[in-house]
Design goal:
Elements lengths: L2 H16 L5 E6 L3 E7 L4 E7 L4 H15 L7 E7 L2 E7 L4 E2 L7 H19 L7 E4 L2 E3 L2 H17 L7 H12 L1 H5 L7 E3 L8 E3 L6 E4 L6 E3 L2 H4 L11 H8 L6 H20 L4 H18 L4
Antiparallel strand pairs: 1-2, 2-3, 3-5, 4-5, 6-10, 7-8, 9-12, 10-11
Helix pairs in contact: 3-8, 4-9, 9-10
InterPro entries: AGP_Transferase, Aminoglycoside_PTrfase, Kinase-like_dom_sf
Pfam families: APH
GO molecular function, one term: transferase activity
């Protein structure tokens, strides 16, 4: 078990940085790693570990960029370290409640949904005229070729004989890749800075006002297209239909419902390549959603 080791590293880091031991340390497992919540009478911090080597360095850069782009709290990174082979970051503790725990009260849902979509729209509306970001200070004016740069390594992982993907799902991903030009062509418009994982588990709300208190975990943030944020909005608490609220205020190009599932499938494949996660039934479900959306639109690829 790694948890006792990570718990010890977190406590030692707290003691070293703040000249005193925490009164408690609550280590929790997450999709990409572990998060420890530590507090004493004088200090509260969050210490984050990651399963994917190098991802925390990427997150430090992304956190700083997101903070300059969005009008809400983003946790400050206080320290980056490595102990016993485990990288970690020490972060500001921000008070708030995970947004997937929003109460089923009309006022709370309305206030949060309105505020969150406005924050995203304001961020997406900031122009980035250089194009789509494919690496540091390097851009591509075409979404399809940018997508190829982002996802070629993912495709190689999916199709590799050692990957966990079944033959049937591999074949479907080969078809998806062949369809990229037709599916993505409507996105050749102004690029936007995106969080790229803005589902409700990465958002905190204020328990008194129900407004967004903070946005977390922007490791994959960058200058892409705003639809790389929007498809995440209904991943958790789909009954809120945050996508519909966003689109009502900031319409999308025709064919969005197809691209929603297309981008979601590639995003899941990216996570699989990053940490080895795989859920066959989830991929099949989304492939069927993509197929039915294409069929309904009359644009079968």
């Amino acid at each position: 078990m790694q948890e006792p080791q990570l718990n010890r590293i977190a406590v030692n880091a707290f003691c070293t940085l703040f000249s005193g031991c925490p009164d408690f340390c609550n280590l929790q497992s997450t999709f990409y790693g572990w998060v420890a919540f530590l507090a004493s009478e004088k200090r509260r911090v969050v210490i984050k570990f990651c399963r994917q080597q190098g991802r925390l360095s990427q997150e430090i850069n992304s956190v700083n960029r997101l903070r300059s782009m969005i009008d809400c709290k983003v946790p400050e990174i206080l320290f980056f370290g490595c102990e016993e082979g485990h990288e970690f970051i020490v972060m500001e503790w921000i008070d708030g409640v995970p947004a997937h725990e929003l109460p089923n009260e009309p006022y709370a849902l309305e206030v949060f949904s309105e505020h969150f979509t406005e924050l995203l729209i304001n961020m997406h509306n900031q122009p980035h005229h250089n194009g789509f970001e494919i690496s540091e200070n390097k851009y591509d004016s075409q979404i399809t070729t940018a997508f190829e740069t982002w996802m070629n390594p993912v495709l190689r992982f999916v199709l590799d004989k050692k990957s966990p993907f079944s033959t049937a799902v591999k074949n479907r991903f080969e078809n998806l890749w062949d369809e990229r030009q037709l599916v993505l062509a409507p996105l050749n418009e102004t690029a936007s800075f995106v969080h790229d994982d803005c589902h409700l588990a990465n958002v905190l709300f204020d328990a008194k006002t129900f407004k967004v208190a903070a946005i977390l975990d922007p490791a994959d943030a960058g200058i892409k297209h705003r639809e790389f944020d929007i498809f995440h909005l209904n991943d958790i608490r789909p009954e809120l239909d945050l996508i519909a609220r966003y689109v009502a205020k900031f319409p999308l190009a025709e064919g969005y419902e197809i691209r929603r599932w297309y981008l979601s499938l590639w995003d899941d494949a990216k996570h699989a390549s990053n940490i080895g996660w795989y859920d066959e039934q989830s991929f099949i479900y989304k492939l069927e959603k993509y197929h039915h959306a294409s069929k309904r639109s009359g644009r079968m690829f």
